[in-house]
Amino acid sequence: MSGRGAAAEAQAADYLARHGLKIVARNWRCRQGEIDLIARDGDTLVFVEVRARAQSRFGGAAASITAAKQARVVNAARHYLQTVSPLPPCRFDAVCIDGERLQWLKACFDAG
């Protein structure tokens, strides 16, 4: 992972923790893909994709979360959930960083 990517993930984790989420795992990997951050928001398990762009041109960080990327995150999350019992409510969030601007998108895509 690049220094910029690691810094963005650290910034996102700190931001989410300040807003009440408990970080459970960072850079969780399996054959199906990678999940940048896994957190708890109360009883809800939150799978977080972190995207950073130096500038917001070409749609910015949020636009870089393609349908293919979403599918990889969902597949990895399904694999992770095989290790969790009982199954909690889940959601997929994104933390998008465009230059100095950080945006937390809650429930921005789903497993369907």
Quick structural gist:
By secondary structure, the chain is an alpha+beta fold.
**How many structural domains are formed by the residues?**
1
Helix content: 25-40%
> What is the CATH architecture annotation?
3-Layer(aba) Sandwich
Low-confidence sequence ranges: none
> Averaging pLDDT over every residue, what do you get?
91
Oligomeric assembly: single chain
Structural class given helices, strands, pairing? alpha+beta
Tally the helices. 3
Number of strands: 5
Alpha carbon gap, first and last residue: 29 Å
What is the CATH topology descriptor? Trna Endonuclease, Chain: A, domain 1
Q: Rg, please?
A: 13 Å
How are strands sequenced across the largest beta sheet?
Answer: 1-2-3-4-5
% residues in beta strands: 35-45%
Main sheet overview: 5 strands, mixed
Family: Belongs to the UPF0102 family.
InterPro entries: Restrct_endonuc-II-like, tRNA_endonuc-like_dom_sf, UPF0102_YraN-like
Organism: Chitiniphilus shinanonensis
Protein name: UPF0102 protein GCM10007860_21170
Task: Tell me what you see in this structure.
This protein has three helices and five strands; from the N terminus they run αβββααββ. The chain is an alpha+beta fold and 112 residues long. The relative contact order is 0.20. It has one domain: Trna Endonuclease, Chain: A, domain 1, CATH 3.40.1350. A five-stranded mixed beta sheet has the order 1-2-3-4-5. A hairpin with a 2-residue loop joins strand 4 and strand 5 (101-109).
